[in-house]
Write a structure and sequence with these properties.
alpha+beta, Signal_recog_particle_SRP19, Signal recognition particle subunit SRP19, 6 strands, SRP19-like_sf
Length: 201
């Protein structure tokens, strides 16, 4: 309907307003089926007791914390290494520490999702720590004993061998891809040279 003004009916010309208001941000929204679903964050308070039969009875008062970084030869003292590089081992995991403690029959609590505040990278790269009953050892002495046990662990040996094979496979694939790329470039250069010779004739 138009409006009356001085006896003249005025009619509005132009596009009508949409029934539903347009939100310019709608075009930027990611459809639900295309959204990346991240897994839930692990429970950092999760603990595994050893021996298992002491799960509900173990008193951890006085237990000492040991992080994998303490025994890691790839870490600097600033990053948390607590023993010499000669005694330390490369990239020990928290499961390695637990298995080494079990081989020494030492009571401990495994906390697989705890991060080390001194080395933030280990929170996603190599998380975890153990709480250890050091009543029969001094902490430094125990860390040295653990470092001796780590290279002998069957699971660790198998893991290192598997990682080595994976690394060799990746290096081989990279070398093959590079060789293929160089062959294509060489072929293109040769084709251009032949084309120039043909034009001279």
């Amino acid at each position: 309907m138009g409006k009356k003004k001085g006896g003249v009916r005025i009619k509005q010309i132009g596009p009508k307003a949409p029934a539903v208001p347009i939100n310019p941000m709608d075009a930027l929204q990611i459809p639900e089926d295309e959204m990346v679903q991240l897994p839930p964050a692990p429970d950092r308070s999760y603990r595994i007791f050893w021996p298992l039969q002491e799960t509900f009875t173990m008193d951890t008062t006085g237990f000492q914390v040991i992080y994998p970084s303490y025994l890691d030869s790839t870490k600097t003292i600033k990053q948390g290494r607590r023993i010499g590089t000669e005694q330390a081992v490369e990239n020990p995991s928290v499961m390695d520490l637990s298995q080494a403690l079990q081989s020494l029959h030492i009571r401990h609590v495994l906390q697989p999702y705890k991060g080390y505040s001194r080395d933030i990278t280990c929170q996603w790269d190599n998380p975890g720590r153990v709480l250890v009953d050091v009543s029969n050892y001094r902490k430094k002495e125990l860390m040295m004993k653990l470092a001796e046990q780590l290279p002998k662990l069957p699971d660790r040996i198998a893991r290192i061998e598997r990682l080595k094979l994976e690394q060799q496979k990746e290096e081989k694939e990279r070398a093959e891809a590079m060789a293929e790329k160089e062959a294509v470039v060489k072929s293109n250069v040769t084709s251009k040279k032949k084309g120039k010779k043909g034009n001279k004739k």
